Amino acid sequence: EVQLEESGGGLVQPGGSLRLSCAASGFTVRDYWIHWVRQAPATGLLWVARINGDGSLSNYAVSMRGQLAISKDNAKNTVSLQMNGLRADDTAIYYCVRDRGGSAYDLWGRGTMVTVSS
Amino acid sequence: QSVLTQPPSVSGAPGQRVIISCTGSSSNIGAHYEVHWYQQLPGKAPKLLLYGNSFRPSGVPDRFSGSKSGTSASLAITGLQAEDEADYYCQSFDNNFSEVFGTGTRVTVL
Description:
The complex is a heterodimer of chains A (118) and B (110).
Chain A: E1 3-7, E2 10-12, E3 18-25, E4 33-39, E5 45-51, E6 58-60, E7 68-73, E8 78-83, E9 92-99, E10 105-108, E11 112-116
Parallel strand pairs in A: 2-11
Antiparallel strand pairs in A: 1-3, 3-8, 4-5, 4-9, 5-6, 7-8, 9-10, 9-11
Chain B: E1 9-12, E2 18-23, E3 36-40, E4 47-50, E5 64-69, E6 72-77, E7 86-93, E8 99-101, E9 105-109
Parallel strand pairs in B: 1-9
Antiparallel strand pairs in B: 2-6, 3-4, 3-7, 5-6, 7-8, 7-9
């Protein structure tokens, strides 16, 4: 089955760090751009970051630039998102998504919840 | 920060046609970037509904259609059904190399 599965979310204190992981099955992440998208409680979608097929190119949302590092392990077929300096307003469900081309996301994981609170 | 504006809500009776607008600017939709649409059912992850302004992925009913003109795009749902009750988001690319989403529209079937 073709799917994405996120992990690594949880409760973290303000200023803390988390590393999210996204495991792909049924396809090879090397063949796709992979993005992270987040959704704060009862609000809309916000693009966070993306990485290209071989992991050589990455981009980040301006609001989170400097906090994030996205990486890809093609051997393990996974994508990771390192988040540092977390703030309360980073509380959200973080989705890993596959880009079918032209930034159209045709495959979404179930998401992993990140809660930033003291 | 959403830079694409959608109406917060639209509603219609079963069988009716509803249209959701998505208004951007010259740095995103107006810069000839494609618009994609997603449907998010309650408690679920979003699902790709339309891509490339108007193309439907396999399995999406032809009741859903899309168009784009200038700095705006729209999603039309014809023959509205109870199962269409969901949140809908548009998405495009911006000249600052960011992907941008719309503010989201809740569709209610009366």
